[in-house]
UniProtKB/TrEMBL annotation:
Residue ranges annotated for the Inosine/uridine-preferring nucleoside hydrolase domain, each copy included: 4-306
GO CC annotation, single: cytosol
Keywords in alphabetical order: Glycosidase, Hydrolase
Molecular function terms from GO: purine nucleosidase activity
Superkingdom as given in the UniProt entry: Bacteria
Protein species of origin: Amycolatopsis acidicola
Transmembrane annotation, as ranges: none
Name the UniProt record assigns to this protein: Nucleoside hydrolase
Pfam families: IU_nuc_hydro
GO biological process terms on file: purine nucleoside catabolic process
SUPFAM superfamilies: Nucleoside hydrolase
Length: 314
């Protein structure tokens, strides 16, 4: 099984993604770390504990990470999308967690799990990349323990927080640039362009709800999230962004990827937080002799959408 650590800001789609990994037989879920994002850190941490409890996985350690971005003083919020508590105002309906958070915090948990690992570990960041940037900056020797980073974030031709930027990248562009551009660690980026292709409708949610009590509990977390898609896209369904990325973490190759140089806009202008995916052919990039090789990211571009929907249904 894939050894996996999820870094998350639950978040309705995060809750689906955590459950997917927590219930999969193909995964050894080593730990879950929380980060500010959709809502504040206290709520994202509590939500992560609750979702694991729902899945009967109070054996999985949870640790709290960053409460704000590296540079910008104000954390972003998406309570208007995910509800005031991050789970459509329904988080209290989930079981009370029995497990306490780890005292050493997210970085402490990453360090102990990676040090102990005898096989490469996959990290699936599905929130702002602050914790991951700090980990790579502070513990470069642990990079060799990381098999791949499979992250949900960015866009090739679309944004959601702004016309240019996707929420996870926009929430901490400097951290995202550190991970995607500056550090030589293998990254798979699952952008909005692909997650939107994998949107699920209310019939799919009804099927999930009918399949098991856990499915029903997840479906019960979706009303505010559904309402926000209805408002913004005029459509009766939701995009389970983070579950698409975690599917790839669990089942390598379920998404088709292409290698592209990626840059992150860290300016304070209108492009802040945009991912610039260079789709030009190498000979068009003017990479003559002596040029610095750009960092290459595997960008997820396509999948068998129906197959993926079935995979997430379990
Ligand atoms: C990403 O932003 C968050 O709102 C979701 O949980 C997902 O990780 C989509 O842009
Ligand atoms: Ca998320």
């Amino acid at each position: 099984p894939v050894k996996l650590i999820i870094d998350t800001d639950p978040g309705v789609d995060d809750a689906f993604a955590i459950s997917l990994a927590a219930l999969s037989e193909d995964v050894e879920l080593l730990g879950v770390t929380s980060v500010f994002g959709n809502v504040g850190l206290e709520a994202t941490t509590r939500n992560a504990l609750r979702v694991l409890e729902l899945c009967g996985r109070s054996d999985v350690p949870v640790a709290a990470g960053a409460a704000r971005p590296l540079v910008h003083p104000q954390p972003a919020r998406a309570g208007h999308v995910h509800g005031s508590d991050g789970l459509s105002g329904r988080s209290a309906a989930l079981p009370e967690p029995r497990r306490e958070i780890e005292p050493g915090g997210a970085i402490g948990l990453f360090v102990s799990l990676l040090e102990a690992a005898d096989e490469p570990v996959t990290i699936a960041p599905i929130g702002p990349l602050t914790n991951i940037a700090v980990l790579l900056a502070a513990y470069p020797r642990l990079k060799e323990k990381i098999g791949r980073i499979v992250l949900m974030g960015g866009g090739v031709n679309r944004g959601n927080s702004t016309s240019a930027a996707e929420f996870n990248i926009w929430s901490d562009p400097e951290a995202a640039r550190r991970v995607l551009v500056e550090e030589d660690v293998p990254c798979v980026m699952v952008p909005l362009d692909l997650t939107h292709q994998c949107a699920v409708d209310t019939a799919w949610l009804a099927k999930l709800a009918a399949a098991s009590p856990i499915g029903a509990a997840l479906d019960a977390l979706t009303p505010d999230y559904l309402a926000s898609y209805r408002r913004s896209l005029g459509w009766d369904g939701i995009v389970l962004h983070d579950a698409v990325a975690v599917a790839e973490a669990i089942s390598p190759g379920i998404l088709r990827t292409e290698p592209h140089p990626v840059e992150v806009d860290c300016s304070f202008g209108p492009g802040r937080g945009a991912t610039l995916v260079d789709q030009r052919r190498p000979e068009m990039r003017g990479e003559g002799e002596g040029a610095v090789a750009p960092s290459t990211v595997q960008v997820a571009v396509a999948t068998d959408v129906d197959g993926l929907g079935e995979f997430v249904l379990g």
